[in-house]
Amino acid sequence: ERFLDITTSRKNNITTGQIYAEVIARERRGDYLGQCVQIVPHVTDEIKRRIREASEGVDVLIVEVGGTVGDIEGQPFLEAIRQMRLEEGVENTLFVHVALVLTLKATGEFKTKALQHSVNTLRALGIQPDIIVARSDKPIDQEARRKIALFGTISEKAVFSSHDVDCVYKVPVVLEKQGMGDYLVTRLALAEANPDWREWNHVLNLYDNAVFPVKIAVCGKYTKLADSYVSVKEALQHAGVNIGAHVEIDWVNTEEFENGSRSLETLHGYDGVLVPGGFGRRGTEGMIECIRFCRTNDIPFLGICFGLQLSIVEFARNVCGLAGANSTELNPETPHPVIDLMPEQRRVSCLGGTMRLGALTVKLIKDTLAHRLYGADEIRQRHRHRYEVNHTYWETLQKNGLVFSGFSPEGDRVEIIEYPVNRFFLATQFHPEYLSRPNRPDPAYLGFVKAAMERRKTLKAAEAVA
């Protein structure tokens, strides 16, 4: 979505669980008329059906079969695409195999043996790659390219290097310079076109010239793996490069605030703090303390989804005087359930796929920070939650200075909160990072990074005077 600036739907994400659930449901309905249900053809047929469904209305469908070749989980998917080549024709299908090429640090030599074994495993499953993309830390040399082509049984022109770059958005340019675009057009007999790279190169220029350092702390519970918050990371970068800021992100595990291994005072070292989405109790008291510290020290703050809910909890406890206030997700027995399960969720017994999910309209209140940021009365944003701000506490929260600046169209659900006493304190129930693009950053993220940048400039100016 970020690379192509498109919006995908749930049909573009095919999982093993979806496939097996559908096959079992069909068997229970009697669709198979008592047949013995098997991986082939029943599971593979369902995979193919879903791939074809996703291809409706497009010229070229890119299908990524995740995982590692040879893993048992991926075999039904590989069998399905093997069959699709037979059914759709060689001229209408193309297999691209992305494989790791290691480099010996001592000698700088490329080692392609792992890639060769990967290709051999694919062949054993009936798939011959048409293109091999060598994933490496540096551009592969001609000798490695020749060896990959020889043992991969493809032309050297069909071997491409996808090596490390300082910005992921440079990868398409790297592949284009090697001729991948022309090769794909010829191989798939597509209409030739002169690609216009001007906008893309403009984005790369922004990244190369974003030099003003802005330090952001992302305080959450899944921080050991940065990819857990990859959309948050990208949205921060999008916002930064569009105002000339180089955003440095520190991933802070809020459990460290709880066990005392990290002091809240360390947050003074950041220009802004973001609390992202999450579920469950672990680390939440640390997040709440983090939010309190930002609010009382006027550190630019952005809360996303769970971050909004915990901002409500913090404000209720420390400003409204509601001792023990909490979310019923975290403490079902809380005396002040300021965050509670949405009424329609109380009837839900199966949790899978039953959240308030997808793109929904948000109405913005005029003369608020949110309205100034988005410059519109209504916006569409993606959601993923089942808890909300409890109506019972709306009046108390607002009387104490919290502003509700965004609502659902019916006005019965809080979507955005802000604390106007601070230079920037905003939290959203939705996930604005999902609509952020390299050339079109989300306004909430843009406003947040701008505020963080201004804080850094103010501190630097004060240091210079001192």
From TrEMBL:
<keyword id="KW-0436">Ligase</keyword>
<dbReference type="InterPro" id="IPR033828">
    <property type="entry name" value="GATase1_CTP_Synthase"/>
</dbReference>
<keyword id="KW-0665">Pyrimidine biosynthesis</keyword>
<dbReference type="GO" id="GO:0044210">
    <property type="term" value="P:'de novo' CTP biosynthetic process"/>
</dbReference>
<dbReference type="GO" id="GO:0042802">
    <property type="term" value="F:identical protein binding"/>
</dbReference>
<protein>
    <recommendedName>
        <fullName>CTP synthase (glutamine hydrolyzing)</fullName>
        <ecNumber>6.3.4.2</ecNumber>
    </recommendedName>
</protein>
<dbReference type="GO" id="GO:0003883">
    <property type="term" value="F:CTP synthase activity"/>
</dbReference>
<keyword id="KW-0315">Glutamine amidotransferase</keyword>
<feature type="domain" description="Glutamine amidotransferase">
    <location>
        <begin position="225"/>
        <end position="450"/>
    </location>
</feature>
<dbReference type="GO" id="GO:0005524">
    <property type="term" value="F:ATP binding"/>
</dbReference>
<dbReference type="InterPro" id="IPR029062">
    <property type="entry name" value="Class_I_gatase-like"/>
</dbReference>
<dbReference type="InterPro" id="IPR027417">
    <property type="entry name" value="P-loop_NTPase"/>
</dbReference>
<feature type="domain" description="CTP synthase N-terminal">
    <location>
        <begin position="1"/>
        <end position="190"/>
    </location>
</feature>
<keyword id="KW-0067">ATP-binding</keyword>
<dbReference type="InterPro" id="IPR017926">
    <property type="entry name" value="GATASE"/>
</dbReference>
<dbReference type="GO" id="GO:0019856">
    <property type="term" value="P:pyrimidine nucleobase biosynthetic process"/>
</dbReference>
<dbReference type="InterPro" id="IPR017456">
    <property type="entry name" value="CTP_synthase_N"/>
</dbReference>
<dbReference type="Pfam" id="PF00117">
    <property type="entry name" value="GATase"/>
</dbReference>
<keyword id="KW-0547">Nucleotide-binding</keyword>
<dbReference type="InterPro" id="IPR004468">
    <property type="entry name" value="CTP_synthase"/>
</dbReference>
<comment type="pathway">
    <text>Pyrimidine metabolism; CTP biosynthesis via de novo pathway; CTP from UDP: step 2/2.</text>
</comment>
<comment type="similarity">
    <text>Belongs to the CTP synthase family.</text>
</comment>
<dbReference type="Pfam" id="PF06418">
    <property type="entry name" value="CTP_synth_N"/>
</dbReference>
